[in-house]
Write a structure and sequence with these properties.
mainly alpha, 2 domains, three-stranded antiparallel sheet, 4 helices, 46% helix
Length: 172
C-alpha cells in the first residue's frame, strides 16, 4: 500500500479486497524479515571480524607488554593499596595488585545465612502478588479509580488506564 492508494479513497469492502490487503501486508512483512535476516548475518560477520582484530591486537602487543611489565619490576613505582604505577612521557604503566572477588549464588547464600542464624544479613523484599491480586480488581479507566470487585473498597497504589485497541494479522 502506498500514499496513492491511501489517498485515492480505497476501501476494503469485500473478502477479495481483504485477501489482497493481507497478501500485500504479508509481502511487506516478508521483505522486512528478509532485510532483518540480512542485517543479522552482516552483524555476525562484523562480530567475527571484531574478534579477529582484538586477537591480532593482543598478539601484536603481548611481547612488548611483557617487556614493560618486566621493566616495571626494576624501577621505583608509586604504590597504593590496590596498584603500582610508573609515569612516563607517553603513558603510565599500571600494575593492579591481586585482589579477591566473589561469585555469589544468592539462593544458596540466603539459605546458609538463615540456617546459621544470620537473618540480620538477609534482605526481605515484600512485593504484591500482582497476578493473584489483579483478579480481585475492578477499575474505571476514565477516572483511574480501582476497587476490590467484591467489596467496593478503594485500592491505593493502582490506577486504571485504558490500553489502546490492537489489531493483528495471523498469516497462514
Amino acid at each position: 500500500m502506498n500514499e496513492e492508494t491511501e489517498s485515492s479513497g480505497f476501501m476494503i469492502d469485500s473478502d477479495e479486497k481483504a485477501e489482497w490487503a493481507i497478501r500485500k501486508i504479508k509481502e511487506a512483512q516478508d521483505e522486512h524479515d528478509r532485510l532483518i535476516d540480512l542485517i543479522d548475518r552482516e552483524l555476525e560477520k562484523l562480530d567475527s571480524r571484531r574478534e579477529e582484530i582484538e586477537k591480532r591486537l593482543e598478539s601484536d602487543t603481548a611481547f612488548l607488554k611483557g617487556q614493560l611489565m618486566s621493566y616495571m619490576r626494576g624501577v621505583k613505582c608509586k604504590e597504593s593499596k590496590t596498584q603500582d604505577s610508573y609515569q612516563l612521557l607517553s603513558g603510565k604503566l599500571i600494575r593492579k595488585k591481586p585482589a579477591v572477588d566473589y561469585e555469589v549464588d544468592a539462593e544458596a547464600l540466603t539459605k546458609w545465612l538463615n540456617d546459621n542464624g544470620r537473618e540480620d544479613l538477609v534482605q526481605i523484599v515484600a512485593k504484591p502478588k500482582w497476578g493473584d491480586f489483579k483478579k480481585l480488581l475492578a477499575g474505571d479507566a476514565e477516572s483511574g479509580a480501582v476497587v476490590i470487585a467484591g467489596t467496593g473498597e478503594a485500592v491505593d497504589g493502582v490506577k486504571a488506564v485504558e490500553t489502546p485497541e490492537k489489531f493483528n494479522i495471523k498469516f497462514n
